[in-house]
Amino acid sequence: MRKWWPLVTVCLGTFMLLIDVTIVNVALPQMATDLSTSFNALQWVVDGYALALGVLLLGAGALSDMHGHRRFYVGGLIVFALASLACGLAAGPALLVTARVVQGAGAAAMFTTTFALLNSSYQGRERGVAYGVWGGVSGAATAVGPIMGGLLTEAFSWRWIFLVNLPICVAAVIMCFTTLRHDGERRPGRFDLWGTLTFTVAAGALTYAVIRANDEGWSSAKTWGLFVVSAVALAAFVLIEWRTERPMFDLGLLRSRSYTGILIAGLLVNFAAFSAFTYTSIWLQSVLGLSPLRAGLVGLPMSVCAALASGIVGARLHGRSPRLIIGVGMLLIGGGSLLLGLLVDATAGWPALMPGYVVIGLGVGLVMPTLSSSAMAAVPLRSGGMAAGSLTTARQLGFAIGVAVLGTVFASRVTAHLGSATAGHAVAGGQAARLAGTVPEAAIHSAAAAGLDAGYLISGAVGILCALVVFALVRPTTPTTPEPSREPATV
Length: 491
Prior knowledge:
Elements: H1 5-22, H2 28-35, H3 39-67, H4 69-89, H5 93-111, H6 114-121, H7 124-155, H8 160-163, H9 165-179, H10 193-216, H11 221-243, H12 257-274, H13 277-287, H14 292-298, H15 300-316, H16 322-343, H17 354-377, H18 384-418, H19 421-428, H20 441-473
Helix pairs in contact: 1-6, 1-7, 1-9, 3-4, 3-5, 3-10, 3-18, 4-5, 4-9, 7-14, 7-15, 10-11, 10-18, 12-16, 12-17, 12-18, 12-20, 13-20, 15-17, 16-17, 16-20, 17-18, 18-19, 18-20
């Protein structure tokens, strides 16, 4: 049994960092009430974490190679714990959002060392078992996140969704020093500082521009100024990576049409499949009156279907064309989102979500495991780590951008239906109860449904567009790799 303690140590950190992507969704309405947050602040509570995790992942991987994977994992755990404490004690939205960004940085440090720590602890068949268990734990984290968030929020307070991380972090740090191999001497290397900075500015400015567009308007000079900053930073990133001897991201990988198509699919799959859940949770609790726990349980059928479809991929579809599996999966995700847009209306309750959730879950189960193994198979063996890391980065960025885009659409549609910016932001921000007696309940239901429908339709269009890109770019067959990734269907 002792030989599996390194796996337990790694899985503890992975479970925490993945849960914290989704655990906040069901707590947003209570956060909004307790902290009197704006709608933009709620978006940043979700996006700050995902954005930091995504943009820092590749740079963190390079630093961990130089300074030691165990050291970096322990450092990530400590940063994550301190940021979780700050989140749990936050007295205002500014501190909460800042702490979420720092929490995402700690999560990036942990996540980027996962495979290296498992590789150094296990060989041969045991390594395959370790990857399988890690994948199962990661998938469970996604499914359990909203339910655990609902339990903690309903039984105690939204603050406990963060404070519960502290004892787990302490246990994981102790286990690191007792179960994981010592790193030895630090290895020489060069950190791509300017590449990391320009990429961070590009992604951050883009996300901020989309979120601010809800207040400033899409034609505002401030909004377009941020888009320009993002474009310039992205151009600078490309130039730096092209000229750097040891780039954070090798642009030469994009010469592979299959890898380019897979990377685009990674960017768009989380947008299409998961971004609308943030606002669905607000609708379920603030408008329909569900408890946090019941709101978390509503998403369980999708997780179950994703797990079933993922099992089918591993057992029955291994070796089949990734173009077909990913393409069909994205069509299912797009179709499920469009179905949600058709079924959710002013009179709908939570059961209206079930058909769409089932279809989306099946699509997620097809896409997620296939994306990871196909990305590594589409590039040279020496670039497998970079391919896997950049795919994870793309997925987190897609989620962050999706939350920003759909949030702006949701709020603008709600406001347009109610004819009042104050009322619109109250409903979109999870504080519909404040409008009791001043706005008819039927109008609130109609406005919220209209906002959700717009988001679902955009998600559906993105999913179908992604499927077309995959069919156009990804090769019909991709050779298998000796060590396929077993990454689960996670956000």
